[in-house]
């Protein structure tokens, strides 16, 4: 009788991959909505400036804050799909047996960077609570929280990818096309 060996973290890997996939699914949709909102705000600003002349001065600033959130929320999406910058040119030229340790090194490097960014992003967001946006009169807390929130999400997605790789779990987005 033959015993079937499973990787030690298989159940954990499957659970983490399912959660990471769902999180990525939500983040991708939020990014799409934010980009659509940004386009609407920019178009409103153009139409307002050249046709309506209502005197609305907020569109450029709002578009900027939406763009910051959309761009930063795309980072954990890219980390989940391993579409972040990973020195692909060099990585692809490595021998196959060197690629897993190199991938692990790059993941650990990314994990450390985003942990650092999350930690210092919290300090930045706290200081933003005492700074005010020029047009809206709101504090900069909300725009600045984009940094620690997205860095924390990226840390989770990188860790999920590392667990997925260690468990030998196939990513759920493989074979499903664009999610």
Q: How would you describe what is shown here?
A:
The chain has 179 residues and is mostly helical. It is 70% helix and 0% strand. The chain has helices at residues 10-52, 59-80, 88-91, 99-128, 141-144, 146-167. Helix 1 (10-52) packs antiparallel against helix 2 (59-80) and helix 2 runs parallel beside helix 6. The longest helix is centred in the first third of the chain and has 43 residues, at 10-52. It is elongated and about 65 Å long. The two termini are 41 Å apart. The mean pLDDT is 88.
Radius of gyration, taken over Cα atoms and rounded to an integer in Å: 21 Å
Largest sheet: none
Report the helical percentage: 55-70%
Count every helix, treating DSSP H or I runs of 4 or more residues as helices.
6
Unreliable spans are: none
The general outline is elongated
Mean pLDDT: 88
Report the end-to-end length measured between terminal Cα atoms: 41 Å
Structural class: mainly alpha
Q: Kindly state the number of beta strands.
A: 0
Q: What is the strand content?
A: under 5%
Sequence of secondary-structure elements: HHHHHH
Please give the structural blueprint.
Blueprint: H1 10-52, H2 59-80, H3 88-91, H4 99-128, H5 141-144, H6 146-167
Helix pairs in contact: 1-2, 1-6, 2-6, 4-6
Features:
179 residues, single chain, 70% helix, mainly alpha, elongated
Describe the structure concisely for a colleague.
It contains 6 helices and no strands. By secondary structure, the protein is mainly alpha-helical.
